[in-house]
Design a protein that fits this description.
Elements: H1 3-48, H2 54-63, H3 66-76, H4 86-102, E1 106-118, E2 126-131, E3 136-139, E4 163-164, E5 169-173, E6 176-178, H5 184-193, E7 202-206, H6 212-221, E8 226-230, H7 233-236, E9 259-260, E10 293-296, H8 298-305, E11 337-343, E12 346-359, E13 364-374, H9 386-406, E14 412-419, H10 427-435, H11 437-443, E15 444-449, E16 459-464, H12 469-478, H13 484-488, H14 494-501, H15 523-528, E17 532-539, H16 560-567, H17 572-590, H18 598-622, H19 626-651, H20 658-670, E18 692-695, E19 698-704, H21 706-713, H22 721-743
Parallel strand pairs: 4-9, 6-7, 7-8, 8-10, 13-14, 13-15, 15-17
Antiparallel strand pairs: 1-12, 2-3, 2-11, 5-11, 12-14, 16-17, 18-19
Length: 754
């Protein structure tokens, strides 16, 4: 080949190289341009999501449909679904399929092998009055009367009234004492004011005021051999309306409240650890009741109590059973009579099931907003819990529908949970949080609970961690009031009625937010993991009725008919609660800066600590705790200052810098976790939260600074100087916790400043 040919080939190759080189430069420039453009778009998206998206908020609120909730409730209440039964598993699988059909990204069923409790079939629990010759004078009803046969299907297996985890046994006594509500102060009054010893006796207490399990443990502590619980009309009926179910929501004379009397939460065989197949199981000695317990109707209670002798009770101990003179008892009018409790309840290991569904976040997939409700019921459970299960299913449908139709996805992951075995002791939620404590402890933003969506029809009330108060106010203001009479009175939003019926004591221009205790599935999230929680529900006007709970609580009469025909025909109030749930889920999962208010949290600490000292300071000073009070107040003051500085930092936050936003969100999310103590509360190591926990003397109620308030509770009754050492120790620990919580609010390089 000649030199000319070689030169032509060389020039051609050089030309090809130059073309490729220039094309490469052009591609690089274009890629840089479009990359920068996309980067700008990402930053813009990040910035624009700083405020809640009003369009999505409005669409979600409008999407929630009352008829869908009604159909869900009708389906969920068709048959009894007691925890650990085949009906419970069937409903779990039904929930899973509904969530998959709605378009959730993933749905799992997690099962746990736990200790559950059931009465013996064919051998019912009974309370009776017998003569000395063994013949029976009276025997309690083994089951509730069926007042609307159309409520019941032939295949329905209705569990008779019982108290879960009561030990079995046959107990007989010549002595039956009436102990009012069975509170510590009631037992103390009998012993110290009437010199009554309860040893070898059976006692009868009315439901109300405190958790039933505390009544049982108190009765055992004061020497009783067994306890009978009953629903007094004073606490569960109207003083002016003599109607009852099926004509109204008031409890009939045959109604009986079932319920657990286990005084711990979670599986008692695997404390602190999940009830997996591989779990080590113990022989439980703590938490399970020591004496037999059984619930009866107020008609049965009348039969028992009208045979009592002894003194007439004080006025504030009197219920309202028609024609009954309330006596302290101790003896019977006829000395040949005795009382007997025949209890056949057995504890059995069975499976319980949690259904967990996920909507994956668009940006922060590793941050979870958890929304849950339990699924199991004592019988039909139209209010507890199926009202909340029906609404939560509509919340998930509304969110997925808006996602599909608006090309929207929440910033953070939403986790929906359908818990099993809540009624017997919060087993499903506790086992789940124990199983995944590391993940939830690091990643969960907040937990939103729904349980008994409607316990009354007057207004919507909220329980919430103090971090969430402002967010809850904002959500309630957005939801139209479904009550026409309230609207005509000028109260056009859910917030307006809440403020009208339930104003705060410390801030009368705002409604009162209740503290979270136990008694529902928020307990392990707040009390063990330190995660902020909230729960909305419709309730009754406390100025109108002095009820201990909604009247048909845990009875066979909690039916679809009760809701559909008596409490909320049209389901508009149900819809309003579901709208609130949708809004708070959206706000927590989609706002750039988490809607957690550290200033409100700080104010709450100050108010609650002031309440303690208003009541107890003089006695504390008299017992040499002056310096302890000073240290505590100083810690609260320092916390307030650091909270103000963080609030100002959030106001000036450069939201275009993702790391700074994440840093602030982590401070807000983890603030309540900073009140956790690995050793737990004194005598209650399961509960780690030293700021918020259930009251030791009423698990339903929330206590603030519980280590301090628990140790102060018995001081006035028992002046043993060692008790003041307990107060001093707990004051010291909580003071330290306040100091270290304040340090988490500071700038990254200033946490150690003093």
């Amino acid at each position: 080949m000649g030199c000319g040919s070689n030169r032509r080939i060389l020039l051609r190759n050089l030309a090809i190289f130059l073309v490729i080189f220039l094309v490469g430069i052009l591609i690089g420039a274009l890629a840089g341009h479009y990359g920068a453009t996309n980067k700008k778009k990402e930053v813009a998206t990040f910035e624009n999501s700083n405020a809640p998206n009003p369009a999505i908020s409005d669409l979600l609120i409008k999407e929630v449909n009352a008829e869908n909730i009604r159909q869900n409730l009708k389906k969920y209440t068709a048959h009894p679904h007691l925890a650990g039964t085949s009906a419970d598993l069937e409903q779990a699988e039904q929930v899973k399929q509904q969530w998959l059909d709605q378009g959730l990204d993933r749905v799992d069923i997690n099962s746990y092998d736990v200790l559950l409790s059931y009465p013996m079939e064919g051998d019912p629990n009974l309370i009776s009055l017998k003569w000395d010759n063994g013949s029976t004078f009276f025997e309690s009803q083994p089951a509730e009367a069926i007042l609307r046969p159309e409520d019941i299907q032939p295949e329905d297996n209705i569990v008779p009234p019982f108290n879960a985890y009561s030990p079995p046994g046959d107990v007989t006594s010549q002595k039956l004492f009436y102990v009012n509500y069975g509170r510590e102060e009631d037992f103390y009054w009998l012993k110290n004011n009437k010199s009554i010893e309860l040893n070898d006796s059976i006692v009868i207490a009315r439901y109300g005021k405190i958790f039933r399990g505390v009544k049982v443990s108190m009765a055992a502590e004061y020497g009783a051999k067994a306890i009978i619980l009953y629903t007094d009309p004073y606490d569960f009926t109207s003083p002016t309306d003599n109607s009852s179910y099926p004509d109204s929501w008031w409890i009939p004379k045959t109604g009986v409240q079932r319920g657990t009397v286990m005084d711990v939460a979670g599986d008692p065989l695997t404390p602190f650890y999940p009830a997996l197949d591989s779990a080590y199981r113990i022989d439980p000695t703590e938490g399970l009741p020591k004496i037999p317990a059984h619930p009866v109707s107020y008609d049965d209670a009348r039969q028992l109590m009208q045979q009592l002798g002894g003194e007439t009770v004080p006025e504030d101990w009197r219920g309202s059973i028609t024609g009954l003179v309330y006596k302290l008892g101790g003896s019977f009018l006829n000395s040949d009579m005795k009382v007997s409790a025949h209890i056949t309840t057995r504890n059995i290991r069975r499976r319980t099931y949690n259904v967990i569904g996920y909507i994956t976040g668009s940006v922060e997939q590793d941050r979870y907003v958890v929304a849950g409700t339990h699924r199991d019921a004592w019988v039909y459970g139209a209010l507890d819990p199926s009202s909340s299960a029906a609404a939560m299913m509509e919340v998930s449908r509304a969110i997925t529908t808006v996602m599909k139709s608006n090309n929207w996805r929440p910033r953070r992951t939403i986790v929906f949970a359908s818990w099993g075995a809540e009624e017997q002791g919060l087993l499903g939620s506790f086992e789940f949080t124990e199983h995944f404590s590391k993940v939830l402890g690091q990643r969960a933003v907040s937990y939103i609970n729904a349980d008994v969506l409607m316990e009354g029809v007057d207004f919507m009330r909220f329980k919430a961690s103090p971090l969430l108060h402002t967010m809850v106010y904002d959500a309630a203001k957005k939801i139209p009031n479904p009550d026409e009479e309230e609207v005509q009175a000028g109260r056009t939003s859910v917030y307006d009625s809440w403020l009208h019926y339930f104003p705060s004591d410390s801030q009368p221009d705002k409604p009162r937010v209740l503290a979270i205790g136990s008694g529902s599935d928020y307990s392990p999230f707040q009390n063990v993991l330190g995660i902020s929680c909230l729960e909305p529900r419709y309730t009754w006007d406390r100025n109108k009725w002095k009820l201990s709970s909604y009247p048909l609580y845990h009875t066979v009469y909690e039916t679809f008919y009760l809701v559909d025909h008596i409490m909320d025909p049209g389901f508009q109030k149900f819809r309003a609660v579901a709208q609130v749930l949708s809004e708070v889920v959206r706000d927590l999962s989609d706002s750039l800066v988490l809607p957690l208010d550290v200033q409100s949290f700080s104010r709450y600490l100050k108010e609650e600590s002031d309440k303690i000292f208003e009541v107890h300071e003089a006695l504390m000073v008299a017992n040499n705790l002056t310096h302890d009070i000073e240290y505590f107040r100083h810690a609260v003051s320092v916390f307030q200052k650091d909270a103000e500085e963080l609030t100002e930092q959030i106001r000036q936050l450069d939201t275009s810098r993702p790391y700074l936003v994440r840093e602030v969100n982590d401070k807000l999310m983890n603030l309540q976790r900073s009140f956790l103590d690995p050793q737990g509360l004194p005598g209650r190591p399961l509960y780690k939260n030293l700021l918020l926990a259930p009251s030791k003397f009423d698990a339903y109620s929330g206590a603030v600074f519980p280590a301090i308030t628990d140790s102060l509770h018995r001081i006035e009754a028992n002046t043993d100087p060692k008790k003041w050492e307990h107060v001093r120790k707990n004051m010291s620990i909580v003071t330290y916790i306040l100091q270290t919580a304040a340090s988490t609010l500071r700038k990254a390089t200033e946490f150690s400043k003093v």
